[in-house]
Design goal:
The complex is a heterodimer of chains A (319) and B (275). With 319 residues, chain A is mainly α. Chain A has 2 domains: 38 residues, no CATH class; 191 residues, MetI-like fold, CATH 1.10.3720. Helix content of chain A is 69%, strand content 2%. Chain A has a two-stranded antiparallel ribbon. In chain A, helix 8 runs antiparallel to helix 10. By secondary structure, chain B is α/β, with parallel strands linked by helices. Chain B has a domain of 67 residues. A 6-stranded mixed beta sheet of chain B has the order 7-8-9-4-10-11, with helices on both faces. A 4-stranded antiparallel beta sheet of chain B has the order 3-2-5-6, covered by helices on one side. The chains are: A mainly alpha (319), B alpha/beta (275). Chains A and B meet through helix 1, helix 9 and helix 10 of A and strand 7, helix 3, helix 5 and helix 6 of B.
Amino acid sequence: MTAPVAERAKEKLSSDPAPVAGASKAEKLVKPKANRPKLNSRLYTLGSVLVVVVLAGLWQLVGIIDTREVRPGQPFFPGWQIVLTDTVTGLADYWRGGLGVESVSAGGERTYIGGLLAIVSHGWDTMMRIIAGLLIGAVIGSLVALVVSGSVWGRRLFAMPTAFLRTFPLLGLIPMFQLWFGTAFAGAVTFIAVAVGVIFFTGVVNAVANVDAIYVQNAKTLGARPIRTYVTVVLPSILPEMRSTIQLSLAMAWTAAIASEFVGAQSGLGYIVTHARYFGFVDRMFLIGIVVVIMASLTYYLVSRVTKRLVVWMPDAQG
Amino acid sequence: MTAVTENHKTTEQVENSGPVHGAELVATNVNKVYSRAGQKFHAVEDVSVTIKPGEFVCIVGPSGCGKSTMMNMATGLLEPTDGELALDGEPIRGPSPDRGLVFQKDSVFPWMKVIDNVTYGLKCRGVPKEERMSIARKFLAEVNLTHVEKSWPKELSGGMLKRVAIATAFSNAPKLLLMDEPFASVDYVTRLQLQKTVLDLWAEHRLTVMFVTHDVDEALTLADRIIVMTNGRVVDDRRVAAERPRRLEALSTPTMLEHKASMLQHLGLPTEGGA
């Protein structure tokens, strides 16, 4: 990411208006370009909402045209009239009871509140695995990468293994992780951490390799020793690139979490999907899919907001 | 440059005007050989020069003549293949704050505010906060950037960024300031203003300056002494004893035109009728 920064800086240089004679005191700061006009931005938002509505309409249309059923009463393409009613109450099956709402297996009724509680509790389980896996993977992956890329020998020795790691079909090895670490919390978290760790490791190694040498040389000629150079120059200059690594790892964390819950887990959104598959509940899988999309989007948004603060210094920081 | 009117002094007068802070740079039989695709390339060949304390020396030459390699060896970012460079008798091994560098590209850290950039070197050297802030503010004032102390570099123009780099280099009090085509990418008027800024700071702080440029006029405006390099060798070494400050007209005096014609000849551009 540092290269684009330098490029943009160069562009700015060449597009500098010639200052008038004796302009030093009158010089004004270069104002960052104004954001897209508000009206335009609203139009885009409206457009996006419209696209979502159209897609939802298309889904409904497919359900009307194709009336095949997985088994009697369970359509291949359940319309919204099912997904937003029976499906929600049906999810009450996964509520384990508590908060004054009895579980279905203990004789409770299938209610909307039961369904919502099931979504929230299983979503919470998945979320906790993601957060724990992300944190562990990010910290360990980054630290190992920083140590490795801190020395020339480290970079040379790890260049090939890093390239291998990136192509590693990790999702195919879920059963192995479950044998090693179990199918409960620890197994899922370890799996997510490894998946995320690999992304962070390769991301940091690449970002460090892309640091513009001029900044490191500048620090050295100003008297900075290696550790200070690393902390004050290398770390901040990899932040812009790390933002995309974080986004990438978030996507991976969601995929890994849901996938790890497909096999053997006793809770989580992935568990509901697998369970629904046994009984041909396409509507439940579909609804959980939507819940995942909403939750994942929210995490993207939050992470994007938080990390934007770290790169406030970047020219045209967007996010 | 109407602003450049005060203090008419010759180089000699400037040299005698205050305590010299600069150090002596001695290069002895310096060679730098690169190996590219199995072929050896002599970037610098047997260069021996002595730059006196407080001297403002320009190194002029076409691209690939070895001037930037020479500069990088003086900084300590590159090691000579053979020969030695020494500052005040101390052999140069690796970068040191004694030898400041102003780069051609933007080197100001974009993630630090202007004031933090200027104080960076002082912080590395353990100067207490109050002292380093006052030093940095003094130099920011000298380059007319007091008003942007708390700004992000992204908010500054190219010329202003150059001045941040200059203030950063000077506030670190180097004994030798190396400038590697620092104004190559700024517009003409800004370049003249930056030249004046550097000359003013040099006259005040009396450090040794080694300034690399491919622009003969820039060298004639700035230097006490001009070294011309081609193909890794020093082909010309001349003193420019013209009065300072040198206005644009000063470059058209017979002596200056003679200097220019002679240097251009060394650079492989024979001129007709002497100019």
